[in-house]
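Researcher: Last one for today. Full complex below.
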Amino acid sequence: MSLKAFHLVFIVASIALAFGFSLWSVLNYRAPSGTIWDLVIGLAAFAVGVGLVVYERYFLKKLKNVSYL
Amino acid sequence: MDIPYTSEPRQDTGLFNAKVGIWLFLASEVMLFGALFSSYILLRVGAEPGEWPHGLLNIPLGMTNTIVLIVSSITVVMAWASLKMKNFARFKLFQSITLLCALAFLGIKSYEYHDKFTHYEVWLKDGKIADGHLVENNADTIVLHHAHYVDKEAAAKVTHAWQEREIKEEEITIKKSDIRLREGGKLDMESYGPWHNTYTAIYFTLTGLHALHVIGGAIVIFFLWGPLSGMWKTDPERYTNRIEISGLFWHFVDLVWIFLFPVLYLL
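Model: Here's the assembly. Have a good evening.
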């Protein structure tokens, strides 16, 4: 597996973490002692997740001639 | 004497030798971290209800470190791609950002460790427990910042980190004569170091081992970026392969953190 393939695996894991963390923060916000910061962090994590999806598409296009091995 | 298969792939594996080597090494690393993660899970599910600590770690700092490592993985792969496109100046730029990210990660981690080593639990003679950051240790008194008295019954009911926020924190001054004594006459107070409880032991083991990997990876990346970069002129293909190998290790280290962050900070 080349660095290109491993990087894709890593970015997919990061996207999953970003969206999962976003959900966790929003659930905290809705809890009785939730604060506006939970919502801000949740939205920021969601934005990071979306950014990583966009980056992954860019990365695939940029390195389309590099082998996965 | 030429060392074979440093650039060209072997016929039997389809890969140059260093790539087979690094994947065998990473397989052993998966077993090492896998064993520690398994230990964490077993310790956690085996803990008595309410005994496993919540909210001890600073989530914004952990989140910042996660972003720092994600950025470093992007710069490390961009550095490798720059070499593939024969752009050595861009490679230098991207790897220097990777090194800065490694330093930033270690700086934040050091701050978190310092925070834990100055965070104390103090057992008083009346049975109460004071919990806070030790800022003064005088002859007769100690002063704890961001401190509160622990209610063991209430703590047992805490199941989510957000419930910890209902605790009001203040500055507490405690007379040393009010602190319970241990055998040998020492004051019964202890920082949140690895010796404090099962959670801090596994936290320091996992994050400490991870930090050692970050240091090791950063040293290799630095040497390839600086002292060994002359190889780009003499054998560019082999040099590019070395950068890929160091990038694979760096990605593994980053991937471990992607699992460590939610397990230790959020759940």
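Residues 3-62 of chain A form one domain. The two ends of chain A are 4 Å apart (CA to CA).
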